[in-house]
């Protein structure tokens, strides 16, 4: 009974969705909707426009601090097990803070150069 209901639901639901898709009214796209949009750049210009290094730096900073959050997220559960976890946590936070201070001091975070 359970397997039969699973097979029926996995075949009937997609068939209903496909039928509804074919019965839905077609849209009338205009030229503006059909033109490609590339993040504010005109698709008809040269594809090799110079891109500011600031975009890459911000992306790297985002990935770095996203990784930091992923590494520090399980810390509350691990704090009960040993003191080495606390040492590594503070070392990681110290190194990331030191790197952030260095980048800030070098002007990498100054967007309006």
UniProtKB/TrEMBL annotation:
<dbReference type="InterPro" id="IPR038430">
    <property type="entry name" value="NDAH_ubi_oxred_su3_sf"/>
</dbReference>
<protein>
    <recommendedName>
        <fullName>NADH-ubiquinone oxidoreductase chain 3</fullName>
        <ecNumber>7.1.1.2</ecNumber>
    </recommendedName>
</protein>
<keyword id="KW-1133">Transmembrane helix</keyword>
<keyword id="KW-0249">Electron transport</keyword>
<dbReference type="GO" id="GO:0008137">
    <property type="term" value="F:NADH dehydrogenase (ubiquinone) activity"/>
</dbReference>
<keyword id="KW-0496">Mitochondrion</keyword>
<keyword id="KW-0520">NAD</keyword>
<keyword id="KW-0812">Transmembrane</keyword>
<keyword id="KW-0679">Respiratory chain</keyword>
<feature type="transmembrane region" description="Helical">
    <location>
        <begin position="6"/>
        <end position="24"/>
    </location>
</feature>
<keyword id="KW-0813">Transport</keyword>
<keyword id="KW-0472">Membrane</keyword>
<keyword id="KW-1278">Translocase</keyword>
<keyword id="KW-0830">Ubiquinone</keyword>
<dbReference type="GO" id="GO:0031966">
    <property type="term" value="C:mitochondrial membrane"/>
</dbReference>
<feature type="transmembrane region" description="Helical">
    <location>
        <begin position="55"/>
        <end position="79"/>
    </location>
</feature>
<dbReference type="Pfam" id="PF00507">
    <property type="entry name" value="Oxidored_q4"/>
</dbReference>
<comment type="function">
    <text>Core subunit of the mitochondrial membrane respiratory chain NADH dehydrogenase (Complex I) which catalyzes electron transfer from NADH through the respiratory chain, using ubiquinone as an electron acceptor. Essential for the catalytic activity of complex I.</text>
</comment>
<comment type="similarity">
    <text>Belongs to the complex I subunit 3 family.</text>
</comment>
<dbReference type="GO" id="GO:0030964">
    <property type="term" value="C:NADH dehydrogenase complex"/>
</dbReference>
<dbReference type="InterPro" id="IPR000440">
    <property type="entry name" value="NADH_UbQ/plastoQ_OxRdtase_su3"/>
</dbReference>
<feature type="transmembrane region" description="Helical">
    <location>
        <begin position="85"/>
        <end position="104"/>
    </location>
</feature>
């Amino acid at each position: 009974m359970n397997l039969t209901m699973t097979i029926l639901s996995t075949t009937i639901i997609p068939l209903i969705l496909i039928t509804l898709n074919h019965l839905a009214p077609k849209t009338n796209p205009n030229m503006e909707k059909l033109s490609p949009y590339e993040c504010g750049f005109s698709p008809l210009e040269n594809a090799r426009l110079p891109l500011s290094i600031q975009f890459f730096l911000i992306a790297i900073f985002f990935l770095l601090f996203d990784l930091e959050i992923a590494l520090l997220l399980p810390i509350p559960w691990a704090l009960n097990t040993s003191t080495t976890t606390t040492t590594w946590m503070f070392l990681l936070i110290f190194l990331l803070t030191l790197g952030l201070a260095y980048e800030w001091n070098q002007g990498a975070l100054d967007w309006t150069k």
